[in-house]
Write a structure and sequence with these properties.
elongated
C-alpha cells in the first residue's frame, strides 16, 4: 500500500472545492477573495493559497468546466435628462 493521501480522495476533494467556488462566486455573486475566505475557514480548512493553486490546476487540466467567467452585463448609463425625471429627496 502506498503512503500518503489517497489520490481518489484528493480528486474528489478538488472537484467539490471547484463546485463550491463556482457556487460562491457565480451563484451567490461574492467577490473571489470573500469566496476564498469562506472556503478556507468554513468549508475545507486549507489555506487560501492552496485553494487557488487547486483551482488553477483544475482549470489548466480542463477538469473545471463551470469555472469559466460569466459574460459581463453592461449597465445603461443615465443622462442628466433622465435623472431629472426623479424628484429630489
Amino acid at each position: 500500500m502506498a503512503k500518503g493521501r489517497d489520490k481518489e480522495l484528493i480528486r474528489l476533494r478538488d472537484e467539490a472545492l471547484c463546485r463550491r467556488y463556482y457556487y460562491w462566486t457565480e451563484r451567490q455573486r461574492l467577490r473571489f477573495d470573500d469566496a476564498l475566505k469562506i472556503l478556507s475557514e468554513r468549508e475545507f480548512f486549507i489555506s487560501e493559497e492552496r485553494i487557488m493553486a487547486i483551482i488553477r490546476r483544475m482549470i489548466r487540466s480542463g477538469n473545471a468546466e463551470k469555472l469559466s467567467p460569466v459574460a459581463k452585463v453592461r449597465k445603461p448609463r443615465l443622462t442628466n435628462e433622465q435623472l431629472s425625471l426623479f424628484p429630489e429627496l
